[in-house]
Amino acid sequence: MKKNVLILLFLSIICMSMISDKNAYLIFDKNGNLSKYENLLEAAKNADIVLFGELHTNPICHWLEIELTKDLYKSSGKEIVLGAEMFEIDNQLILNEYLSGRIKENNFEAEAKLWPNYKSDYKALINFAKKNKLNFIATNVPRRYASLVSRSGFDVLDSLATEAKTLMCPLPIKYNAELNCYKDLLKSAAMGKDTAHININLPKAQALKDATMVYSILKNYKKNQLFIHFNGTYHSEKFESMVWYLKEMNPKLKILTIASVEQEEIENLNIENLNKADFILCIPESMDN
User: Fold this and answer.
1) Does residue 130 lie within any of the structural domains?
2) Could you report the per-residue pLDDT of 15-55, keeping only the tens digit for each?
3) DSSP β-ladder status, 255-263 and 225-232
């Protein structure tokens, strides 16, 4: 009898401990159903293109990016190609030189246009590619051209030198101003401002980035490969932005999207975060503080 009581007491303590655990993240499907990492991994294996939408300063995002990359490399059975928004096309040469071992790490880090959080958040991905001889594609348009479009619109790109035009998607850029991703960007820019001073070119600069990243992906993707791309979550959310360009350029591709969101409580996915991606990585707001 005493033995049974002790067993029940022990099980109760375990259950209470499990209830009080604080999750660092949870994964949901697009409908808000709780999912598992194993489901995400299995779905990613069957994709052609994986768009991992991150929150740039969130450590959970960066940890899961490298873990997913490692697991897909080990288990997908496909040739893996990596790419990222955080590296601009005009840095591909120096990136290739580092990945091939032709230049030293200190030269690469000193001369490439690296984000301030490169060492803490992206270096592991680059070095994984280097160690395993994987191609890593710098997909993004140089920021000076996005800034140019933000000020003056698409037409200004026609005046650039031929060499400059090789650092972006082919012109003219197909642009759908009716996509919610671009309309919402305008709405956000308009909040609290005189409508006469809203920058109507702001979403065009975003579209230039989206289109160029997709062009870079497809230029370096071959059938039966798996291309894993890392980008800000807003570049692939709600199956628009980059997803729209991918479908426009190659509708036969199997695309898997991952969105990252932060919530005060993560046990249930907030309504506004439903249908943001095939899988939604939900992280406590306090994780990014």
Assistant:
1) no
2) 434 444 779 999 999 999 999 999 999 999 999 999 999 99
3) unpaired
